[in-house]
Specification:
The complex is a heterotrimer.
Chain A (H helix, E strand, L loop, with lengths): L6 E5 L3 H14 L2 E5 L2 H10 L2 E7 L7 H10 L8 E6 L8 H7 L3 E5 L3 H11 L15 H9 L8 H11 L4 E12 L6 E8 L3 E6 L8 E5 L9 E10 L5 E7 L4 H18 L7 E11 L5 E9 L3 E6 L1 E2 L5 E8 L2 E14 L6 E6 L5 H13 L5 H7 L16 H9 L3 E2 L10 H7 L5 E2 L2 E9 L3 E8 L4 E8 L1 H4 L2 H15 L9 E7 L2 E7 L3 E3 H6 L6 H20 L12 E4 L4 E3 L6 H10 L12 H4 L6 H17 L9 H10 L5 H4 L5 H10 L11 H10 L3
Parallel strand pairs in A: 1-2, 1-3, 3-4, 4-5
Antiparallel strand pairs in A: 6-7, 6-9, 7-8, 8-11, 9-10, 10-11, 12-13, 12-16, 13-14, 13-19, 14-18, 16-17, 17-18, 20-21, 21-22, 22-23, 23-25, 24-25, 26-27, 27-28
Helix pairs in contact in A: 1-5, 16-19, 16-23, 19-22
Chain B lengths: L1 E5 L3 H11 L5 E5 L2 H10 L6 E5 L7 H9 L9 E5 L4 H9 L4 E4 L4 H13 L2
Parallel strand pairs in B: 1-2, 1-3, 3-4, 4-5
Helix pairs in contact in B: 2-3
Chain C lengths: L1 E6 L3 H11 L3 E6 L12 E6 L4 H15 L6 E5 L8 H5 L4 E4 L4 H12 L7 H22 L4 E8 L2 E2 L4 E8 L2 E9 L1 H12 L8 H25 L5 E2 L3 E4 L4 E2 L7 E8 L2 E11 L1
Parallel strand pairs in C: 1-2, 1-3, 3-4, 4-5
Antiparallel strand pairs in C: 6-13, 7-12, 8-9, 8-10, 8-11, 9-14, 13-14
Helix pairs in contact in C: 5-7, 6-7
Classes of the chains: A alpha+beta, B alpha/beta, C alpha/beta.
């Protein structure tokens, strides 16, 4: 194992240090990779036989110390020896002792002499031998290849190519890359290009990721001859950001003869065919384009070559404009910057055919390879189906109009996206609520939709008569079509609208506009206690006691007016900006609750706070509200509801039968007397609870119970 | 009179061109600030007026103006900024950087001509 | 009283709808006609029994064209709910897609929802809408020598483009939002031809692009000054010009989408404005 790992990874943000160390190591024949960030470093480790890491105390993204501890936690990478490069300044942050404690093998103090560095490294990694590979003497060139390829991330592709060129002997370089196909298993073939070739080696540009020593197979594109040449990867070519963009391949034993004749033939063939031959046209592939990176609009890629693509889109643009292309599918996720070369507006069709030039974005190369593969004749049927836009099926709508394409596209996804993804097709309820936006009901204008609950949808509204904000609750069409409900709703809402209390959201008006039932109530600028729970707000005990007292006195007032709330829960208690409480959704949810229990079997807000007698559908009074209030405050204090399960029926069963889990256990900080009050409020039998709100307030005031 | 019209919109370039033609000016069109500077170089600075859009790709009008004003060969050529954004801030920025005039889009032909003539008279 | 136009309705469907609407609307039953003036109606219901989708879409597009971008919802009614996608219909301007076999209450409620009169803009909405109305008029009259007439504003729940060519501009910063101007092709050609003082038939796609992009840029740019005085501050993105129908733009859930309609002679165009202050 040890001798296969020959390379050194040098990580530093100081160019001076890199240059110095590089010059020392270069003389010794080590193959060195350079990185300045953790990301680059990891990708270099993954794609190269790194046998030693030299690392400074600071990386671009994290500290050297953090990087080392990261490596030591990774079983695949922890065995690579690690040497810290320290300096007088960096010693403050990281002492040599600490470096060793962390698992570094050694450290080098800079400024250091070349010989010190070498001796330090020699202990851990032998310099490469001149003839490392014993298979055959004829491949001596290749092992030189191996030693000589110092790849410096951060250089442009052409600079890298240049370095590669300079360091390999007698490699023939092509102005026009020769297209080939490569594979790692002879089943899936991916496009690649020969950048240069030697007698028994080649440099191949491809997005196929391979590591040093892996076998790869090479054949002609659209192969008819059946000739496959086997080679093995001897080094990896890195592009910007240390992305692998290709590799060097050596063809050993008989394969070098085969390679020679193979490449010879390919070259001749390519000479006959100009570069246009590698352009590929295919079935439209869905992607998105944008001019400004904010609005994305659908596009279809209909063909591409190494530097450009033709797309169809509804965006109008003109030559020289910038256009960004985004493709996200499977593991491929890429955004590339392109420049428009040519625009053709298809007559009578609202689509432009655009030629995009990606010469300045290397990210395109990866996409190109991906497209070439999914569009190629060899790709599996399965993959085609997934990647390529479906042909219209007989049961889909066939529209032969000009916008045909457009429709099918928008069919699969919305056309332009900005911010959050668009919603799925709306349910009937939502459709109903949406039909009301921008309309007027009696004196109220429906401004915007806030949310939908079990009983109806809530909107922000504007009262045109009194010129104030209101909340409009529109009863769902299901409930408002039940006569019984309508009667009860009107009766109770009338009662509640007479309540005038600072802690009760006032109902201003009950309306019926063209058969649409709604009521207008005080618009409260604030949030509900359910929101606070969701956001893990930490309540102070004293604050909670005040809340409880306030609500008790509000409910006492309600009770004295012969009304019970029936649906006390955190979501129905609002906190205003000035920390005042407002009880909302009054007494109108009676029928709603029964419905929910019978029809649905999933958690809705209420069952968590429902009293046993309400569950049993027995006659209820204020003591049921006391139970719900107790459960609500249990939740606030403990952070979890008193009974919880993943099905509604289980929760209801627990409400009925299980004793209340001791609050003190869940929330030890809560004073004992408060726990007792809450638990007494939640007694199973209403006789055992407080009988009225005043008792609770008295109990809280006396602080002993 | 030689006038450079720099605007990424062909529509605007053509309006301006048509508007100044009757005055006997010959106009040169640039797609962006970079092109405007290229034309300046090519014509060896023999340009009497530059009309420059603010928002353009590659080199925007403001940066192009700063470059031109800092080049001793061209610094005396008056530049009028054309832009749809009319905040006082931007007007001030343009003036400070050496713009001789500031025309707000949308403009009528008369407004355009009046502004141009004011700038030329003021020289 | 609201006026409802029923097009192509079968006797059954007419009966059901007339019964449902008779209390609060005047119902006119007619076969579909391409020339019919429909701006007097509050709601149009197009019935279709056949599966000839191409024909239906053609009709919807024509209906939408005749609404002149006014607040006249078009409801497509089918005999049976079907399982295929209703998206194409929405893309061509349908507000709602319903079937006679849907539960009566929801059917009725949705119809009534659309029959409620449209709301008026609030004062605080007018603060940011007025600059856009003014700048739209100003830009077109100065640049294109046209005098567009502001016809009114209404509010919608989606930002969908229903026209041939649209200029889109994004606003970012303390105030976020989107402004879209949408034309039918013919009017876009006329506007750009007027701006460039050339003949309409000389207008090509590049000119439409530049022209419509410049128009939305100028509209937002000149609205910007009065808006920042009203503490709506934003930066403008590069304008994007989109052709074709049915593109839907995402928008924040609670954002109000205002639709400002304008007439130029016998043609119409529309400006969508959706702003939210962070």
């Amino acid at each position: 194992m040890e001798n296969t790992k020959t390379d050194i990874l040098l990580i530093s943000i100081s160019q001076e240090l890199i240059d110095f160390v590089l010059s020392v190591l270069d003389n010794e024949g080590y193959c060195v990779h350079i990185a300045s960030s953790m990301r680059d470093a990891l990708s270099a480790i993954d794609s190269n036989p790194v046998g030693l890491i030299l690392c400074g105390t600071e990386l671009e993204d994290i500290s050297g110390e953090q990087f080392l501890s990261y490596l030591k936690k990774d079983p695949r990478r922890e065995s690579i020896p690690f040497i810290f490069l320290l300096s007088a300044e960096s010693q403050k942050e990281l002492s040599p002792k600490r470096a060793i404690q962390l698992g570094a093998e050694n450290f080098i103090f800079f400024p250091a002499e070349g010989s010190v560095i070498i001796s330090c490294i020699m202990d851990l990694l032998k310099p490469p031998q001149k003839s490392q590979n014993p298979t055959s003497s004829s491949i001596g060139n290749d092992s030189k290849d191996l030693q000589a390829n110092i790849i410096r991330p951060g250089l442009t592709q052409s600079e890298q190519k240049y370095i590669t060129e300079r360091r390999t002997e007698k490699r023939e370089r092509f102005d026009v890359p020769i297209p080939i196909e490569i594979s790692r298993d002879t089943k899936n073939w991916i496009h690649g290009f020969i950048l240069n070739r030697g007698k028994s080696s080649a440099m191949i540009e491809t997005s196929l990721r391979r590591r040093y020593g892996d076998d790869i197979y090479v054949r002609e594109p659209k192969d008819e001859t059946g000739i496959v040449v086997t080679g093995s990867v001897i080094h990896v070519l890195l592009g910007d950001e240390s992305k692998q963009i290709g590799f060097g391949v050596v063809f050993r034993k008989n394969n070098n003869v085969l390679w020679h004749s193979f490449s010879e033939r390919l070259m001749n063939k390519t000479k006959e065919q100009p570069i246009a031959a590698i352009r590929r046209d295919f079935f439209p592939i869905a992607a998105e384009v944008s001019r400004d990176g904010i609005f994305w609009i659908d596009a279809q890629i209909t063909g591409c070559d190494l530097l450009s693509a033709s797309i169809k889109t509804s965006i109008l643009a003109k030559p020289q404009d910038k256009m960004i292309l985004k493709f996200e599918r499977h593991s491929i996720k890429n955004i590339v910057d392109g420049k428009i070369k040519k625009v053709e507006l298809e007559q009578n069709e609202f689509l432009s055919k655009i030629e995009l030039d990606f010469a300045e974005d290397e990210g395109w190369f990866q996409l190109y390879n991906h497209f070439a593969v999914i569009a190629g004749p060899e790709s599996s049927e399965e993959e085609k189906c997934e990647n390529i836009q479906k042909k219209p099926q007989p049961n889909e709508i066939m529209i032969k109009s000009a916008e045909d394409l457009n429709i099918k596209k928008s069919d699969s996804s919305s056309s332009i996206r900005k911010g959050p993804p668009l919603k799925k097709p709306e349910s009937q309820n939502k459709r109903f609520y949406l039909s009301l936006i921008g309309r007027k009901m009696d004196n109220y204008e429906v401004v915007s939709f806030i949310n939908a609950g079990g009983m109806g949808g809530v909107f922000k509204g504007w009262d045109t008569a009194l010129e104030r904000d209101v909340a409009l609750k529109v009863i769902s069409w299901e409930l408002s079509s039940q006569e019984e409900f309508v009667k009860m709703f009107l009766k109770e809402a009338r009662l509640v609208s007479k309540l005038n209390h600072p802690n009760i959201a006032q109902i201003y008006y009950i309306g019926n506009s063209n058969g649409i039932m709604y009521y207008a109530m005080e618009f409260i600028h604030g949030h509900t206690l359910a929101d606070s729970l969701k956001n893990n707000t930490n309540f102070k005990i004293l604050q909670i006691i005040n809340y409880l007292k306030t609500l008790c006195s509000a409910l006492d007032f309600v009770w004295k007016n012969d009304i019970i709330h029936r649906d006390i829960k955190p979501a129905n208690i609002m906190v205003t900006g000035s920390d005042e409480l407002k009880l909302v959704d009054f007494g109108v949810a009676k029928l709603d609750k029964k419905d929910k229990m019978q029809k649905e079997n999933k958690i809705v807000g209420s069952p968590l706070y429902l009293s046993p007698e309400a569950i049993r559908n027995q006659e209820i009074d204020n003591r049921s509200d006391i139970y719900s209030l107790g459960a609500t405050f249990y939740h606030l204090l403990a952070g979890t509801p008193p009974f919880y399960d993943n099905s509604c029926s289980n929760i209801l069963y627990k409400q009925l039968n299980d004793p209340v889990p001791p609050l003190k256990q869940k929330a030890p900080q809560v004073p004992g007397y408060l726990c007792n009050i809450i638990e007494k409020m939640m007694a199973k039998s209403c006789e055992e609870r407080f009988q009225n709100y005043q008792e609770i307030i008295d109990c809280l005031n006396s602080s002993v119970c | 009179m030689n006038v450079i019209i720099a605007d990424d919109s062909k529509v605007v370039r053509s309006i301006v061109e048509k508007a100044i033609k009757p005055l006997g000016y010959s106009s040169f069109q640039a797609n962006h600030g970079g092109e405007a500077i290229e034309i300046l170089e090519k014509m060896d600075g023999k340009v009497d007026l530059i009309l420059m859009d603010w928002n353009m790709p590659i080199i925007d009008g403001f940066n192009a103006m700063v470059k031109i004003k800092n080049d001793f060969r061209f610094s005396s050529i008056p530049i009028i900024m054309l832009t749809s954004e009319s905040d006082d801030n931007k007007v001030k920025m343009a003036r400070d950087a050496g713009a001789a005039g500031y025309i707000k889009k949308p403009f009528t032909q008369d407004e355009l001509l009046e502004n141009i003539q004011q700038v030329i008279k003021g020289l | 009283m609201a006026k409802v136009l029923l097009n192509d309705c079968s006797p059954d469907a007419s009966q059901i709808l007339t019964d449902m609407l008779k209390d609060n609307a005047e119902v006119v039953v007619e076969p579909f006609s391409e020339q019919r003036e429909i701006t007097e109606f509050n709601l149009v219901i197009l019935y279709s029994e056949s599966g000839d989708d191409q024909n239906i879409l053609r009709k919807i597009k024509n209906l939408h064209f005749r609404t002149k971008f006014r607040n006249i919802p078009i409801i497509l009614l089918k005999a049976k709910s079907e399982l295929f996608s209703d998206q194409p219909y929405f893309n061509f301007g349908v507000s709602e897609f319903m079937a006679l076999d849907e539960p009566q209450p929801i059917f009725n409620q949705i119809l009534q929802g659309y029959l409620n009169p449209g709301r008026q803009p609030l004062e605080r909405e007018l603060i940011y809408l007025t600059p856009f109305i003014e700048s739209t008029k100003n830009v077109l009259s100065k640049m294109a020598l046209m005098e567009p007439e502001f016809k009114g504003v209404y509010f919608k729940n989606s930002l969908r483009i229903l026209g041939d060519v649209s200029g889109v501009i994004g606003l970012s910063g303390p105030t976020e939002g989107t402004v879209i101007i949408t034309f039918l092709w013919k009017l876009a050609q006329r506007v750009v031809a007027n701006i460039m003082t050339v003949k309409e038939n000389e207008i090509n796609a590049e000119m439409i692009h530049d022209g419509v992009g410049e128009i939305i840029n100028m509209i937002s740019g000149s609205a910007k000054k009065s808006l920042s005085a009203a503490s709506y501050d934003f930066q403008l993105s590069i304008p994007t010009v989109i052709v074709g129908w049915g593109h839907e733009l995402g928008h924040p859930d609670n954002a109000t989408i205002a639709v400002l309609t304008f007439d130029v002679g016998d043609q119409a165009f529309v400006l969508h404005v959706s702003l939210t202050q962070k």
